[in-house]
Automatic annotation (TrEMBL):
It comes from Spirosoma utsteinense. Residues 399-409 have a biased composition (Basic and acidic residues). Residues 254-287, 396-419 are annotated as: Disordered. The keyword Transmembrane applies. This is Outer membrane protein OmpA-like peptidoglycan-associated protein.
Amino acid sequence: MNTLLLDHLRSVFTTSAVSELARSVGENAAPTQKAVDGLLPAVTAGVINRAQTNEGAAMLYRLLTNTPFATDPSLGVLVDADTHRQKAAQSGNELLGQLFADRPQRLAAATAEYSGVSVGSATTLTGLVMSILMGFLHKQITTRNLSEPQLAALLRDESNTTRAAVPAALAGLLGWFLGTGMSRPVTPIRPEAVTPTTDDRAGGTPWWRWLLYILIPLLLLFLLLRACNRDKTETTTTTTEQSSGTTVVTDTVASDLDGNEMATAQGDSTGSSANAAESSGPEVRVGVDLPGGRKLNVAENSFNYTLATFLATKGGKLPKIFTFDNLTFETNSAQITAKARPNVDDLMQIMQSYPTLKIRIEGNTDSTGDDAINDPLSGERAQAVKQALVKGGINADRITTRERGDTKPVDTNATEEGREKNRRIDVIVTNV
């Protein structure tokens, strides 16, 4: 069955248009097409679901009548012009955030899991679909002079057909958004389900419960011993540093006056290397709340964790420098590794949550090798991080880059460990 809303969206997101859109966001055509095919009915069904209550219908109508929508552009314009695409994606995601204050980024995460595109690309695609959908609804209100009840009736008529068009695999992730009451968590972390045997069902305590009774105390004991050992290690390290008189630079404040002044700051530890994190034991991940209802799940004391914490405290001294300790590149290349992309996506989420945040990305090298090769590579890597953020919908004007070469070492270049620390990407917060 045809629907007014889906038919319009499909007429905009044609196969050729989506192929060009995939190129502009740095994704392959097939997963991008899959993402768009899922997002068109999913976003539409989500908006319809939100308008099923009086409060939701009133909020949607208010957004559609009070938001200054531009003339509905073709997708080709959005693909060819980075600025238009970024503004449209940002506007769409902001509108989505106002309708769904309870973590609208879950939609992009579910789309990324379903289709295979990155979270950053999924966020851009989600914003574009939402922007064009809302622009079309605004046009319906203005040209047909629809009242709030008439808009709600129009949406209600398309509810079942639109919801049925959502791919089953994606719908299973979006029950909270579609109003189906069923939603499988994205990338769940849970033990495998155990099918009970005939003896289990016969009565008494199943064998697997006895196993849990044994494993849970052992796990608690392990965590307690690990915490004690960590405290002991930190105390020993501090004592050794104090007795030797060595100053360890863990976080710095950079001056924007000449780009060279660095002063030791108190309290943070943002310069730890990825290898050091791996050697300390299993990675501990924590939830970090961001403005607008967003929430990150990041490694404790990692770059994104420390950056988000700094921004949340407010009033910190600027400019402020953080070392991107969990960012890696392909060997002798400026291409970000697949393993590191989620960390860049987390930075993108932080920048979306703080719309006035501006940063400078600096590439650094050690003193070995040919400067004619190393220095440009450090600048290219800084530019690669910027481009990844821009493709995710961040305005390019909020990001600058700088090639540092080996002029800003944080450790000695006489050892491999020191050289590894000097080969890094720094992110300097210049405005909040």
